[in-house]
Amino acid sequence: MPDIQVTRIDPDDEEAVAAVLAMDRLVWADDLRTPRERALRDTPSRAAWLATIDGEHAGVAGSWDIEVSVPAKGGAALRPAEGLTWVGVHPDHRRRGVLRALMLEHLRWTREDQGRALAALNASEASIYGRFGYGVASTELMTTFPGGTTFTAPESVEELAAATTTRMTTAGPEHAERLHALVRESGRTAVGTVVRTVEDYARVLTDIPETRGNREPFRLLWATRDGRDVGCAWFHRTPKWKRGAADGRLEVITAVDTDAGAQLAIARRLTSFDLMAHVDHWVAPDDRLVLWQGTQRPIGKGITDDLWARVVDLPQAVAERGHAADVDVTVRVHDETLSANAGTWRWVARDGVGELDRHDGEADLELDVAELGAVWLGGQTLGARARAGFVTEHRPGAVAALDAALRTPAGPVATLGF
Questions:
Q1: Which domain holds residue 96?
Q2: pTM for this model (two decimals)
């Protein structure tokens, strides 16, 4: 194997930041429509790494400072995490260990330098990240709601929606703090929510006319009640005519809310815009919008992975996550990347609080650390993973016991990608 050097760049080193951008654009076959000055501002210089082989740039990775809402007693709790991004290997240096070197350094940095128990990512290719301990923690259903869709909700939800006011504005960096505050509030009740920093929201809310094509600038639809924000949808519209009739599409980038009434009010506005015949919206498979339809059949266009999670510091992660039932099991964890997670642990939870201690005896069950990532947000169940052969049970009932402790009342929500 070649000698691969992975170096974290200095954010003040303009040449290094430019090298990260150049590598990313090459790997992703970027069309270069985004002005270079703006593209440089989008580069994750807070934490970005360059991999080199014999002094030649061979790969790149970055990390966003994020929070992820995990299950907690009474709902959800925000925990700091690292959002892996901008991962790419130069076409001339594929299959030489560059990706592995970048992944190992990111995980080491997340655990040792940042002291964070969880890493997350959105995967461009589903076959890559499982071997580094990531599991599919949440999924999305691609839905298309026709204009004028009827959402049938219970009376209590209707009352909240009737008390909610919605107003539209053009997206821009001046809305970053307001959006950040709302997403954080939503994340305290909705598991799987990803919260970006105020600076990141300001960056992604900034309009780039060169990349819009024939669509309008991004819009924000705010929902308020009793003088406070209770929801927001980030979207854009693309006009189109078909055989003399309006056939435009409205695409929802993301939507957040603090309760069902806010979501209902927003959904009704999004499906009532003039000239928009279709509303495309990625939602969780058990999202309220799906349940208010009664069936997924007319709206679902397939499920795909959303957030991938990686448990980086297992004892800390267990302590930071709520448990739905008491449990006392011994678990053998395999982790080829982070040896500190590997081995046999006694996993105990009482009154919603869990803890791990090293254990010298036999294990009740064993699994790879990626299986924990898959079930960490409640998007998959340990029982289903065991039935598929990914979890081995040595003591009857052990899987069911830990599965019950890790269960959540509802699955994780669909969230903004990074």
A1: 4-136
A2: 0.94
